Fold this sequence. Notes:
Layout: H1 6-16, H2 30-39, E1 45-48, H3 56-65, E2 74-78, H4 83-91, E3 96-99, H5 104-142, E4 147-152, E5 157-160, H6 162-168, H7 172-175, H8 180-183, H9 189-202, E6 204-213, E7 219-231, E8 234-243, H10 245-296, H11 305-336, E9 343-346, H12 347-357, H13 359-365, E10 368-372, E11 378-381, H14 383-399, E12 408-415, E13 419-426, H15 433-436, H16 456-466, E14 470-476, E15 480-488
Parallel strand pairs: 1-2, 2-3, 10-12
Antiparallel strand pairs: 4-5, 4-8, 6-7, 7-8, 9-11, 12-13, 13-15, 14-15
Helix pairs in contact: 2-3, 10-11, 11-16, 12-14, 14-16
Amino acid sequence: MVDDNTDMRDYVTRILSQSPDWEIRTAGNGLEALEAVNQRKPDLILSDVMMPVLDGFGLLKKLKESADTSRIPVVFLSARAGEEATIQGLEKGADDYLVKPFSARELITRVKTQLEITHTRQDNTQLRKAEEELKKFKIISDHAFDAFILMREDGTFAYLNDLTLKRWGYTREEAQRLRVPDVDPIYQEEKFNEVFALAQQLGPIPTFETIHKRKDGTIFPVEVSMGGITLDNKPHLFAVARDITERKVAEETLKKRNELLERTNNDLDNFIYTASHDLKAPISNIEGLLQALLRTLPPESMATERPQRITYLMQESVERFKRTIANLTEVVRLQKEYGAEASLVDLSEVVREVLLDLEPMIQHAGAQVEVNIADCPEIRFSAKNLRSVLYNLLSNGIKYRSPERMLQMQIHCVSTPEYYVLTVRDNGLGLEPGQVDKLFSMFKRFHDHVEGSGIGLYMIKRMVENAGGRIAVESRLGEGATFRVYFRR
């Protein structure tokens, strides 16, 4: 209520205060009214026309200039009577014009009317916004890659986007008569009611997989996300269904391939085990016969270089055969240990033991070994396999050292949120870029000047990967190699 007359302000306030739903604030002129409006926007302004500082017309002009206040209804209360005064007030933008003096009943009626008009206008604005949003939603949903489904409590559909109708095979007219049981082949009314009620309480429900049924009776798998929403003061269940037919086909194909691969691996393991087992006896017999032959031959027959060379080669062949059988047996053992339970292993103790075992080789090579593993006191892994990993990497570093410089090796370990990363670095011969990718292949060797089977790196890679870790290598020819072993925490 804006008026420079205190008695008029009190009179209007007294009349309007009879309604418990109305809160009345007052101002003595247009400027005070603007300050009050900026603090808290009212639903209606009653204003005198003739006032000091800023009159009613000035107040109205200022309100209309701002988008924030332009829609606030204004009723002029003025002593200027007559049609001309009323028309002038309305032309200036006032919503109504009440001539002083006026009755309490007339004032209350005019105020109620303006408030109802305001509320209706607000409702219409919200309705238009809702209609615009719904229009946008329908445009978006009809171009979506998933089915949008809006269900009522009785199992009927309030909305289905175009993709839903296409997948189910129904026209929009036919869909008006559809219910959830028509498209859900495993529908249970009690379960639907339970989920519907739960969605209203919790909102989003965890994603799950189910099946939908088409008009022709065929079914297809879907992944569904849903939640409860309220529209027009009524509960609804909104669902987004994704067709996962291709994913299921891919999963089934992968499952069959894995089963085939597992059978092939088992067959290969059985073959290797059988072959290595069945070859042990014959090779032992050959070795025994060779030794018996050497004992029975007269000494003079072995005096020349040729028979010595032949018997040496025969013995070497037997030893290589025995090593191959042992390596194949070890491969089978690793395969059978897949997923074996690990334990916390003291890394420093394992490093100490391995370096002690390799001490003669380290001394002979004149190598320097730097150890910094304080960041990894314990590693969850098989103790026996951890020893094999370290022994293999360090012994390879010694075997494949460069003759041009003193061998230097580092053993470092750092802790990351997901892994303990053990690094073994040397300044040895190194590898060419094309050789690095083949380094962990079975029986693969790139340097023939030292003895080896080509199976060690393959085996430690299997050990680490079987425990959920991985191993990586960086190497440059003539500079050495760096192996990083990632152990899961």
